[in-house]
Design brief:
The protein has 180 residues and is mainly α. It contains five helices and no strands. The chain has one domain.
């Protein structure tokens, strides 16, 4: 017995695959750029922090905290709903992305994709995955005919990548060097 798929199911699956492929392309593209680019080793901007590392640690920590806010607001949206939670989710997500952009830029431009130890390799992979998962999540939110499972899966992957990047950088730094 053959199963006939409706055009809607096929187009939904196709749209989901495209979103996943575009997210994967972004993640791989960032990793390749970070690997082949010769790192400058210099700070592009420190935004008033004492050093590039201080800027990356503090902004990365704030983005990590906002990612946890994203988790709690997403759970609230799925369990209770409400405009306030949705607004909080969008606002915390936007702020997390804005805080992460200078961090990611400094990582890629100044330091590159590194693999000299396992922590740094995991951090480099997670950093690239953050933006691939972000692209997939945003496409799954705003493009028509996306599979319903794609937003929570992409959001979970994004949260995992942000927390992993924060644990392998900011949290590691605070544990090793201390809080300045």
């Amino acid at each position: 017995m053959t199963t006939v798929r409706s055009p809607t199911a096929t187009s939904t699956n196709f749209a989901g695959v495209i979103a996943l492929l575009l997210g994967a392309a972004v993640a791989v593209g960032l990793g390749v750029y970070g690997r082949v680019h010769t790192p400058s080793g210099e700070a592009f901007a420190t935004f008033g922090f004492g050093s590039m590392i201080a800027m990356k640690v503090w902004l990365g920590s704030a983005a990590g905290v906002l990612a946890l806010v994203q988790l709690f607001t997403a759970v609230g949206i799925y369990t209770r709903g409400g405009r306030a939670l949705a607004l909080g989710h969008r606002t915390s997500g936007t702020l997390a992305v804005l805080l992460s952009l200078p961090v990611a830029y400094q990582c890629l431009w100044s330091l590159g994709f590194a693999d000299y130890d396992i922590r740094v390799l995991v951090h480099s992979l997670a950093g690239c995955l953050v933006y691939g998962a972000l692209v997939t999540k945003l496409l799954s939110l705003h493009a028509p005919r996306m599979p319903s499972w794609l937003v929570p899966v992409a959001g979970s992957l994004l949260l995992t990548a942000v927390v992993t990047a924060a644990l392998t950088s900011s949290v590691w730094y605070f544990a090793e060097v201390g809080v300045p």
